[in-house]
Amino acid sequence: MSTQRLRNEDYHDYSSTDVSPEESPSEGLGNFSPGSYQRLGENSSTTWFQTLVHLLKGNIGTGLLGLPLAVKNAGLLLGPLSLLVIGIVAVHCMSILVKCAHHLCRRLNKPFLDYGDTVMHGLECSPSAWVRSHSHWGRHIVDFFLIVTQLGFCCVYFVFLADNFKQVIEAANGTTTNCHNNETVVLTPTMDSRLYMLAFLPFLVLLTFIRNLRVLSIFSLLANISMLVSLVTIYQFTIQRIPDPSHLPLVAPWKTYPLFFGTAIFAFEGIGMVLPLENKMKDSQKFPFILYLGMTIITALYISLGTLGYLQFGDSIKGSITLNLPNCWLYQSVKLLYSIGIFFTYALQFYVAAEIIIPVVTSRVPEHYQTMVDFSVRTALVCITCVLAILIPRLDLVISLVGSLSSSALALIIPPLLEVTTYYGEGLSPLIIIKDALISILGFVGFVVGTYQSLFELIQPSQVDISTNLTSAFI
């Protein structure tokens, strides 16, 4: 796939890794007549069930495995309730984005708008002349947060891979076939987890050199199978012999709640894939039902695993629940399986940021240097994610920081403001304005407080947090 082709695409939202440039909606513009409104998904082969599967797999990753620690940071009662509230608000913001995109498509006689273009054209409807004249910044802001979010996911994957492989290798000598007793074992010291990240670096660089999303979809299938098997096995363990929860606090200290917020919104940040999935549906009118059904399943999955994981492991829960699994071959295999899935998913998450950044860079160099520059930028971006992961080697804090810093903006702050600017000139109800203002304020407070608390923990970690999250600890 040439970068020249990418620069000429009318459709630039690659926030869903299931949408390939070769299947770009721009290819169907020839039959679009001005004055009509046609969802391009009507000509697509994506069924409602396929859309549901894409929605589910797009929201399930490392964020799910960090939710037991998030529940600990909120409390046994407050944690699940907060996950439910955040889930409801996140789904509502997704529906706002879809509604605004439809409205602007009708107004502008366009067949499809991605997230960035929806925000840009929404700002053009603002009553403020200054905002209208700077509406193009809407797309730049969305692209910026998409890049930060996706590269943040890649940083999380580096830490996750290093932590899990390090633990499996160090506990190999004590690994048994007895999965019923979670016994303490003497670990065989190996190299630092940051050296594991460096060991993965060349392999991930080579993986990101695959520029064809159709080829990456094969790795996506392998990742989905391995992660599904791992999740079933993790659930099977967490529901067995749950200890007495009476000693667990119903509400955790307020200082740790911002860390909960960052992790929770990190897990729920799937808004970037909503418009591409809706556009690819054969019967896009069913998409709202699919969205609510899929996100209901995802929310139930998040709440159940977060609660059960915290009930099972209590205060010893780590940044990923896989790090708490017993030292037997079955659960060691689960860690390896999930890690393999995350390894291949890295390329898919990286693809989003690469397709935003690389065309901008290669457009400024002669055509015969474009391939070399393309690979150089990919290598540099992977190295940046590795360096950031090395600088912040605590998985829980990386997840919380990425969630608070960028995911809250895409999932909570921008969509309500978009609804206000899009419909303000058409007699928007004061109640809707108040509702949207409250959601955006919630997202902004989480953005500020969550980012501050994550950075504070990185700079001045408490002894309790250090002992809880060290990957060399094994329960």
Attribute tags:
globular, Amino acid/polyamine transporter I, disordered C terminus, 18 helices, disordered N terminus, membrane, 0% strand, 475 residues, Solute carrier family 36 (proton/amino acid symporter), member 1, mainly alpha
Could you explain the architecture of this structure?
- The protein is 67% helix and 0% strand.
- It is mainly alpha-helical.
- It has one domain (48-458): Amino acid/polyamine transporter I (Up-down Bundle), CATH 1.20.1740.
- α2 runs parallel beside α13, α6 (115-123) packs across α16 and α8 (136-170) packs antiparallel against α14 (329-362).
- It holds the Pfam family Aa_trans.
CATH topology name, in short, is Amino acid/polyamine transporter I
Number of strands: 0
Q: How many domains make up the coordinates?
A: 1
How far is the N terminus from the C terminus? Answer: 48 Å
Poorly predicted tracts of residues? 1-44, 463-475
The H/E string reads HHHHHHHHHHHHHHHHHH
Proportion of residues in β-strands: under 5%
Rounded mean pLDDT is: 82
Helix count, per DSSP? 18
Helicity range: 55-70%
CATH hierarchy, class? Mainly Alpha
**Could you say which structural class the secondary elements and strand pairing correspond to?**
mainly alpha
| Gyration radius, in Å | 22 Å
Shape: globular
Largest sheet: none
What CATH architecture do you see? Up-down Bundle
Region (Disordered): 1-35
Transmembrane segments: 74-98, 141-160, 193-210, 217-237, 257-277, 289-313, 333-354, 375-392, 398-418, 430-452
InterPro entries: AA_transpt_TM
Domain Amino acid transporter transmembrane: 45-455
